[in-house]
Amino acid sequence: MVKLFCAVVGAAGSAFPVEIDASELVGLLKEAIKAEKQKYDFPVSKLQLYLAKKGDAWLTENEVKGVSHTSGLTLLDAARAEISVVGLSEIDVRHQIDKHQVAAGNGPVNVLVVVPACA
């Protein structure tokens, strides 16, 4: 199992964890995210997921608070791709952070979620 931290674009303070098997598919990650954020009423296929990484560095919770667009980020659009293949394996997302970094909002975010405008 891999624990991914996700944040909804345009929703400050929206970071939340999703735990999923690393061999699962991007499409199933979308379902897990929608299940976690049950307030959305739209087909799961309408979610857009982006790798929350610029270069080799994961964006932090503080950095994603002001994100309103996803230019320069990698779209995870292959629903049949295993999440471990698209940069979300346990090794890819493993971080050593302490409680002070987390409290300061410097914990990493792995996935940015764009919800449809109708949500």
UniProtKB/TrEMBL annotation:
<dbReference type="InterPro" id="IPR045379">
    <property type="entry name" value="Crinkler_N"/>
</dbReference>
<dbReference type="GO" id="GO:0005576">
    <property type="term" value="C:extracellular region"/>
</dbReference>
<dbReference type="GO" id="GO:0043657">
    <property type="term" value="C:host cell"/>
</dbReference>
<dbReference type="Pfam" id="PF20147">
    <property type="entry name" value="Crinkler"/>
</dbReference>
<feature type="domain" description="Crinkler effector protein N-terminal">
    <location>
        <begin position="2"/>
        <end position="77"/>
    </location>
</feature>
<keyword id="KW-0964">Secreted</keyword>
<protein>
    <submittedName>
        <fullName>Unnamed protein product</fullName>
    </submittedName>
</protein>
